[in-house]
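In the present case, backbone shapes were mapped to integers, as reproduced here:
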Amino acid sequence: MHIELIEMLRCPEEHREEFLVLSTSEMNGRMVWLGVVGCPVCHRDFEIIDGIVDFTEVVKGKRQTRSVRRTPAPASPVVLDAESLQALLDLGGPGGFVVLLGSASRHAVGLAALMGGVHFVGINAPPDVEHLPILSLIQCDRVIPLRQAMARGIVVGAECATSPWVVEARRVLLPGRRLVIEGESVTPEGVKQLAVGRGLWVGEKR
């Protein structure tokens, strides 16, 4: 996890948003490899293991040696190259965070080659996606543990193109920014449709 991402994380529990507290055990440059993030509201702690922030299990007592459980995802049914995805996101410059949900995390390397200065956040990325200096990985169960309106763009993988995850994607997206969904049937409330077809839905948050 990139150390600056701590300012964008939120506890997955249903209470007011507060900045989480970071305790690091091992770092590699600006990336936290091992550590704990704690919530000052509900006092729950969540581990960072091998660079991945794991919100699926609460730390209880002394840190245990384990791996983060990650779910495999099939290849996307949508053929989408990095140049086309860059155009759909329409960021217009460096800086900030782009969220890639599920199998869409596989686009991080290609997009990073075209979009310098942008950091990518992979939510529930499949096991074949590696933690990288340009990509922070987060595992979560039911909500996206990011603060409201923090992302400059979001891409939702086909297996996550369902109402709960798309609603969460809209919540963390900045107003006026693009949401790209690998699927044509979901129409998020509060997002203006810009284009649909070829297996994609593209909209802009109002």
User: Anything to note?
Assistant: The helical segments are 82-89, 108-114, 163-172. The chain has a mean pLDDT of 93. The chain has three helices and eleven strands.
